[in-house]
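Q: Structure for this?
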Amino acid sequence: MQNFAVFGNPIAHSRSPEIHQLFAAQRGEQVDYRRILAPLDGFAAEVAHFFTGGGRGANVTVPFKEQAYQLCEVLAERARSAGAVNTLWRQDGKLCGDNTDGIGLITDITTNLEWSLSDTRVLILGAGGAVRGVLGPLLNERPGSVLIANRTRDKARDLALIFAGRGVPVFGCGLDELRGPFDLVINAISAGLDGTMPPLATTLINDKSRCYDMVYGDTPFLRWANQCHAAATADGLGMLVEQAAEAFYIWHGWRPDTQAVINHLRQGA
Ligand code: ATR
């Protein structure tokens, strides 16, 4: 059986093994896909050990995506633009890396949810690694404009500069400088995970706005969006499954049926 793994710290919560096993089962196959808790100072050694032991492919999650990027000898364009790698494999003896987070988000928004991005005014909350990972694929969809708003304003501005000149206006500002409304608000503030979102003005959204949280579950951001009567809201479960599907395609050359897996996970949630 082929060996796969996801590296992170913490990692016990990861749903990647379940998702990849469900994908493989669609072809009547099984994969050995494990969670590996890498020590904070021992990621590179764990990855080397995994691949010398015959590992076929690995996913990488928080906090190792930037380290994975540094380790790779061959990088896909999406990984370069993200400055981070979430998918690893070996080819011709070289460690290769890609980043499937951005395409996962875009596929969920445009294909699963059928929310059009063209000409929309997009607000992204947060300016960390997760945002950098998705900006390239987002800009490829030609939204009307993208505003990155962050508690630390300079990080938002720096990120906007990195992604300037791609044919879409990209700006950065502080959370306290925001003026709405926006057509689409994407939340990537990691504080949302533990329920402590910063206060957001209700004027950011109106009854035509759509709100997407890159985290899955009943998040404080989505509760806020519903209280403000957003037109539609979605959590990041679809993104999670779609980024996994893209990694699965890289390793196996075959695209799984993601909707069946999203439905399965929702039912079990
Ligand atoms: P990730 O990989 O999830 O993006 P990260 O790179 O650590 O994680 O980025 C975390 C993001 O959440 C940042 O935008 C951070 O804002 P700062 O750049 O100002 O630190 C944001 N964030 C985390 N806790 C926050 C809080 N309590 N209020 C506002 N923003 C917060």
